[in-house]
Write a structure and sequence with these properties.
It is an enzyme of class 2 (transferase). It is built from 16 helices and ten strands. It is α/β, with parallel strands linked by helices and 347 residues long.
């Protein structure tokens, strides 16, 4: 099915407004978050799907800037094995766009029963997850109709940035308030680079999507979007993991999509990876990374300067645009990928 417009594209465009509303709502809650922080030492993220990719961002952010150990939960420990784990001193952060995914609600309840304090990050005001948490960070993305998450994902990232500030991260809140304008700039720039990358992706069966550190979450989410809406065999990998073997799959018919903040400690490694990919005769496409990454890639989409801790909120937007346009170019409806619904229930 080929369409000239999509709900997904409209919702991508709604992200600056959704981010502004979310930050206006959540930044005043940092004192409540700080109170939970004083009772806990480490953070356990509970999530699936796109929310799990957001949790990866949250984990890097908290460990790099708040000095807290952060890990990803295995929900089956609660829902399948029913194991009891000592979670005294743990802050369990459950992330679910709807707040109605039973596995996530059940796992957060399990964490509380094991001694954890709880935070919900959800777009579902009044949802079971929001109602059960000690503190609910309810994002203001509005109703999201397209199955692939766009505005609910970026507002989750914003909520996790607020969480980091509340947990004592030595970061500037004023930088966070500038993010919606940066996303506006991404959406306002010509899409020639997006279109050029899309044309190069038509006909390929697979791709490697890579980043590291804060941008690793972007690589995971971009790969998920390409799989969901374009049915592309896309692997999301840290470039450190990629270099340990899977780089062998990158060739003239399997491009690499590389993402990085315009500055920061992982940029040089991403540029070196792009150079290695192109030297091997494989296409390399960049998102972000400034002039350095653009110069090492065949094609690149620029993003406005954001500090590395906030860059993933801007970096994912070009990947969303590429996904939406590629899906339509391939004759698919990006709003309703086959076999998927808006709320996924697992046990």
């Amino acid at each position: 099915m080929t369409t000239t417009t999509s709900v997904m594209r409209a919702e991508i465009a709604e992200q600056p407004a959704a981010l502004r509303a979310t930050l206006d709502t959540l930044l005043p809650l940092t004192s409540e978050i700080a109170a939970l922080g004083r009772q806990t030492r480490q953070v356990l993220f509970i999530a699936r799907g796109s929310s799990d990719n957001a949790a990866v961002y949250g984990g890097y952010l908290l460990q790099a800037h708040s000095g807290r150990l952060a890990t990803l939960a295995s929900p089956s420990i609660a829902t399948t094995y029913g194991a009891k784990v000592d979670l005294d001193g743990v802050l369990a952060v459950a992330i679910s766009q709807s707040g109605r995914t039973e596995e996530i609600v059940e796992t957060m309840a399990w964490a509380a029963d094991c001694g954890a304090r709880t935070v919900a990050v959800t777009n579902g005001e009044g949802s079971p997850l929001a109602e059960a948490a000690d503190v609910a960070l309810v994002t203001r993305a509005g109703t999201e109709l397209a199955v692939p998450a766009t505005k609910t994902y970026t507002t989750q990232l914003a909520a996790l940035a607020v969480l980091a500030l509340g947990l004592g991260a030595d970061l500037d809140p004023a930088e966070l308030t500038r993010v919606p304008d940066a996303v506006d700039q991404v959406l306002a720039q010509p899409e020639d680079d997006v279109e050029a990358i899309v044309e190069r992706l038509v006909g390929v069966q697979g791709a490697v999507v890579s980043g590291r550190g804060m941008a690793f979450s972007t690589a995971l989410e971009a790969a998920l979007k390409l799989k969901e809406a374009c049915y592309l065999h896309a692997m999301g990998l840290s470039y450190a993991d990629l270099l340990h073997g899977p780089i062998a799959v990158v060739d003239s018919t399997t491009p690499a999509l590389l993402t990085a903040a315009n500055s920061g400690p992982t940029l040089s490694g991403t540029v070196a990876l792009a150079e290695r990919v192109t030297a091997a005769g494989a296409p390399a496409f960049g998102i972000g990374g400034g002039a350095a990454l653009a110069g090492a890639c065949d094609l690149a989409v620029p993003v406005p300067d954001l500090p590395e801790w906030l860059a993933p909120i801007g970096l994912i937007v070009p990947a969303q645009l590429i996904t939406e346009r590629l899906a339509r170019r391939l004759g698919y409806n990006p709003d309703a990928p086959r076999g998927l619904g808006k709320v996924t229930q697992t046990s």
